[in-house]
């Protein structure tokens, strides 16, 4: 049915629900799961400050994507528990663009996103990750009910 599924996460409970949908579908399809999380660049001044306060043996782990690495590790653990082959992708920038890029780069068959942000007038004014993905994806999109 599907060979490669891409799902995004920001570590929220609604994103965790999308991850659960993606893991189950990947398990049933025997597909590889690609989990994406985007991050905003951390100012160098903050990195220097935090790195200076950290012990030498952990200071190397303080980097612009340290928070997103934790989010991805948690999501990957859910996939591994479901016996699904998983790859993680920390990306700098806009979440929708990150998901779309990973899907295109890896020739995904399906993108799964949660429906958060798809209701009300705000979706017309601000846009949303699921809205942008549904309009720009080059593969199928599954919008999971997460709210």
- Which architecture does the CATH hierarchy give at level 2? 3-Layer(aba) Sandwich
Note the beta-strand portion.
Answer: 15-25%
Let me know the CATH homologous superfamily. Answer: HUPs
Q: Can you list the strand order of the major beta sheet? A: 3-2-1-4-5
Uncertain spans: 56-62, 118-126
Fold and architecture overview:
The protein has a single domain (4-32, 66-144), classed as HUPs (Rossmann fold), CATH 3.40.50. Strands 3-2-1-4-5 form a five-stranded parallel beta sheet, sandwiched between helices. The chain has helices spanning 13-29, 44-53, 56-59, 66-81, 95-105, 122-125, 129-136; strands spanning 4-8, 32-39, 86-92, 110-114, 140-144. The chain has 147 residues and is an alpha/beta fold. The radius of gyration is 16 Å and the shape is globular. The protein has seven helices and five strands; from the N terminus they run βαβαααβαβααβ. Helices cover 48% and strands 20% of the residues. α5 packs parallel to α7 (129-136).
Supply database-style keywords.
147 residues; Rossmann fold; 7 helices; 5 strands
Write a concise synopsis of the structure shown.
By secondary structure, this protein is an alpha/beta fold.
Note the topology:
Layout: E1 4-8, H1 13-29, E2 32-39, H2 44-53, H3 56-59, H4 66-81, E3 86-92, H5 95-105, E4 110-114, H6 122-125, H7 129-136, E5 140-144
Parallel strand pairs: 1-2, 1-4, 2-3, 4-5
